[in-house]
Specification:
CATH class: Mainly Beta
Strand order of the largest sheet: 1-2-12-9-14-7-6-3
Number of strands: 16
Radius of gyration: 19 Å
CATH architecture: Sandwich
Shape: globular
Order of helices and strands: EHHEHHEEEEHEEEEEEHEEEHEH
CATH topology: Jelly Rolls
Number of domains: 1
Number of helices: 8
Low-confidence stretches: none
Strand content: 15-25%
Distance between the termini: 37 Å
Helix content: 25-40%
Amino acid sequence: MTTDFKSIPIIDVGPLVAKGDDLKMGQDPDVREVVKQLDQACRETGFFYVKGHGVPESLINEVKDVTHKFFDLPYDEKLKIKMTPASGYRGYQKIKENITKGVPDLQEAIDYYREVKRGMYGSLGEILEGCNQWPQDPTNFKASMEEYVRLCTDLSGKIMRGIALALGGSADEFEGEKGGDPFWVMRLIGYPGKSPTNTQNNDIGCGIHTDYGLLTLINQDDDITALEVKNLSGEWIPATPIPGTFVCNIGDMLKIWSNGLYEATLHRVINNSPKYRVCVAYFYEPNFDTLVEPLEMCVEKSGGTRLKERAVYGKHLVNKVKSNFVM
């Protein structure tokens, strides 16, 4: 349950990263301390900063740099990788083509998904079948992003092992049929700077929402505060950038699996800076076709009352994709 938090905690996951390949990591006192902090953050805020993550800062900065360079291109160049239903909903969307709860967002973006081969998930995955679209310019764009996805996938899996221990399960609780073959989504987002003639704080870069999956790693420009997280009293708490860290938050699927012990917290983006802002959001997800429902151990820990929510992750994602774009 989200609380009246006033700030977002910082967690050094270094011990978890170092021991993350060992299923007996929970016996290590440094790992146990990280697990304790993860449990508190997931219960109280649903958001936390991650440091000690092992992803090179040079790569963190490089993916933001090439994203800026892409969005700086002429519009006709960006349209060469335009997102369409035929592209498996992968590619570029211009400003106000993305919709949150029926309202166009003041952002442009490129969407990438784990590639889905024909028939891979049957009819469930048909609309996402296809290959990702990569721009020719910048020339290092594709290589940088693929390495970044690889490292974020590895890091997220280790954080999820810590969260599994925090919930009282084995380190590999969210693997196998649940998340042993994880889906992923990456969204590169550009938020235009605020116009000097606009004196209102009402340009919503991304409307109020929760994330769809398990875990999100947010890599945002260091010099602009735009991401805001809603606490229990309805206050918007800024997720001020801390260089070298990710902002991490939990999503809808983890809320269900934890039987509501961990909350997917509402958040939004408002860029009141005159500067253009970039955010690289990586989403770590369950197996595409897995059924997500409350874990028995979490039902017991929450007093025996079971959430009525359950979802096939891929169906949940596809329903969101179908309603998120002006086509």
